[in-house]
């Protein structure tokens, strides 16, 4: 099968063309003869991957800058969707041909992947299969953060930084589903207009205007005291500025550091203003709170099927174009999710 293999650490965007097995400089290569994974337990399921999502964490992992550092070589990739290709003799929840989605610690940047049956989620009718491959990590992160951790309620003010990215857009939409007043921060006219089209209450173009002044003017016009929940996948200077907008008793959700700078949150101010700071490493819920994570993804899939949320796909690439896909994330070109769609029609049939 075809699989994207990380054989050494480095920048996967360095190669500005299609990837092959002969690329000596790139940290990632496209193997066309990688072994198809076999069923490992009676309850395991092999999925023929149709689409897999790129997340900033995948990029950091290939750079060697992520908190989890797998041994080399490895196949990157986390959330994905596809068709059940084979099932073990003990599988009772799924059958060959079922549409599923899920996430893995590694391995989704390939044509086939094996998982346990209870790790897979059926994709409901009315939900696009490619879009389902973009849902688990980005929307799962925002749903656990906003619904489970912050317990966002109707009428509260939610401020989303990096709002045009994958997790940012998911936070904006989940905030609206919860009935919050949503303020979004992004850079550039195209991203601002897109966010407005989603019904965001106020959008700040941080490339043109002061976040503090713009948000304060909006809050004053709406007779609101301040921000109740800060959703922060960016870090750096923007976090520092946003803290000046927070209410007494506000909640800060630390999602990531796309700016490359880890912010300092002064403990003395958090004490005086009774702030709650939530660190959110979504992937660890699979180990420590798996039921929360599973319920979250099931609810999100039902929301997609009912049209309550929309999965926005910005760019779609093939496995051989993975360098370009990572560049779209690195250069912040995406509005929503960046995907790799896998053409299984030309691939050889798998064998048990």
Automatic annotation (TrEMBL):
Chain ranges of the Enoyl reductase (ER) domain: 22-340
Top-rank taxon: Eukaryota
Entry-linked InterPro entries: ADH-like_C, ADH-like_N, ER, GroES-like_sf, NAD(P)-bd_dom_sf, Quin_OxRdtase/zeta-crystal_CS, Zn-ADH-like_protein
Protein name, per record: Enoyl reductase (ER) domain-containing protein
């Amino acid at each position: 099968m075809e699989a994207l293999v990380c054989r050494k650490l480095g920048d996967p965007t360095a190669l500005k063309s299609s990837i092959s097995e002969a690329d000596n400089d790139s940290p990632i290569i496209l193997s066309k003869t990688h072994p198809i994974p076999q069923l490992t337990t009676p309850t395991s399921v092999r999925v023929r991957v149709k689409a897999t999502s790129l997340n900033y964490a995948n990029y950091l992992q290939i750079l060697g800058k992520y908190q989890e550092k797998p041994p080399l070589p490895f196949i990157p990739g986390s959330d994905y969707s596809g068709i059940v290709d084979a099932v073990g003799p003990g599988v009772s929840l799924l059958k060959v041909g079922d549409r599923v989605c899920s996430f893995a610690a590694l391995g989704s940047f390939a044509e086939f992947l094996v998982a346990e049956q209870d790790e897979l989620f059926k994709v409901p009718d009315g939900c696009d299969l490619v879009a389902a491959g973009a849902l688990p990590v980005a929307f799962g992160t925002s749903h656990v953060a906003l619904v489970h951790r912050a317990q966002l309620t109707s009428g509260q003010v939610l401020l989303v930084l990096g709002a045009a990215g994958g997790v940012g857009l998911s936070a904006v939409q989940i905030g609206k589903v919860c009935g919050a007043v949503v303020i979004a921060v992004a850079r550039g006219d195209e991203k601002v207009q897109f966010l407005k089209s989603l019904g965001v209450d106020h959008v700040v173009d941080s490339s043109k205007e002061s976040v503090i002044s713009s948000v304060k003017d909006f809050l004053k016009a709406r007779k609101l005291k301040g921000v109740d929940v800060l959703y922060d996948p960016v870090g750096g200077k923007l976090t520092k500025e946003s803290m000046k907008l927070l209410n007494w008793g506000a909640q800060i959700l630390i999602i990531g550091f796309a700016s490359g700078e880890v912010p300092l949150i002064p403990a003395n101010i958090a004490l005086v203003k009774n702030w709650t700071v939530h660190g959110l490493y979504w992937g660890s819920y699979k180990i420590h709170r798996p039921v929360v994570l599973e319920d979250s993804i099931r609810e999100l899939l039902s929301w997609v099927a009912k049209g309550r949320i929309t999965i926005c796909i910005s760019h779609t690439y093939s496995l051989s174009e993975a360098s370009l896909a990572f560049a779209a994330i690195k250069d912040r070109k995406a509005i929503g999710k960046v995907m790799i769609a896998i053409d299984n029609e030309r691939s050889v049939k798998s064998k048990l």
